[in-house]
UniProtKB/TrEMBL annotation:
<dbReference type="Pfam" id="PF13599">
    <property type="entry name" value="Pentapeptide_4"/>
</dbReference>
<dbReference type="Pfam" id="PF00805">
    <property type="entry name" value="Pentapeptide"/>
</dbReference>
<dbReference type="InterPro" id="IPR001646">
    <property type="entry name" value="5peptide_repeat"/>
</dbReference>
<protein>
    <submittedName>
        <fullName>Pentapeptide repeat-containing protein</fullName>
    </submittedName>
</protein>
<dbReference type="InterPro" id="IPR052949">
    <property type="entry name" value="PA_immunity-related"/>
</dbReference>
Length: 211
């Protein structure tokens, strides 16, 4: 699946995320951010546009009304972060630590998660469209009451993933792997799976498969 890439200019100025703590109206734009930290803070209206963000620490932060558009996050720590009431578009998360992250009432469009650890994360009451998760750990991740459209899980670990009231129609998990997953028949209708996964799902539903 092809998704739109971030639109970032070639001339970026050095920037810092910490400025938003003293100036709520501050916007990170056309910036190259490296090594910033707002760990453990509560931040409203964090806006990052057309920028690269590397080696930054957002862990244990509460973020409200974020807007990330045309951003590449590389090697950043989002562990145990809660993000709600915001939007993330044309954005990439590469080699990031996102264990325990909570997305609540979020909108995602053309977003890439690659080589990222997202175990124990949750997505609640959110909308995801054209989202690619690649080589990403999603063990014990939960999806609740969300809308997914053209979401692809490519070579991801989905073990013990829990899905409730979140249809996986038009989603593709065929190249990912799991031993156990909780996904109702209604939610999995229309989801693309592999033949080996079909056998696993049959077993989880109590069906006996014979040759």
């Amino acid at each position: 699946m092809k998704i739109k890439q971030p639109e970032i200019g070639s001339h970026l100025e050095p920037g810092k995320i910490e400025t938003v703590l003293s100036d709520p109206d501050f916007i990170v734009e056309d910036s190259e951010v490296n090594g910033s930290t707002i760990a453990g803070e509560s931040v409203e209206r964090l806006r990052i546009f057309s920028s690269t963000v590397k080696n930054c620490d957002f862990s244990n932060t509460f973020m409200d009304s974020v807007d990330f558009t045309d951003v590449v996050f590389n090697n950043c720590d989002f562990s145990n972060v809660k993000i709600e009431d915001g939007s993330i578009h044309r954005t990439e998360f590469r080699n990031c630590r996102m264990t325990g992250i909570q997305f609540d009432k979020m909108n995602f469009g053309n977003v890439l998660f690659e080589d990222t650890k997202m175990n124990l994360s949750s997505v609640v009451t959110s909308k995801l469209e054209k989202v690619l998760l690649k080589d990403t750990m999603l063990d014990s991740t939960e999806f609740h009451s969300s809308q997914l459209k053209q979401v692809e899980f490519e070579v991801c670990s989905l073990n013990d993933m829990y899905v409730h009231d979140t249809p996986f129609k038009s989603c593709d998990i065929s190249r990912s792997y799991f031993d156990s997953i909780t996904l109702s028949k209604e939610d999995m209708t229309g989801c693309t799976i592999s033949s080996s996964q079909a056998v696993t799902f049959a077993g989880l539903m109590g069906l006996n498969v014979v040759d």
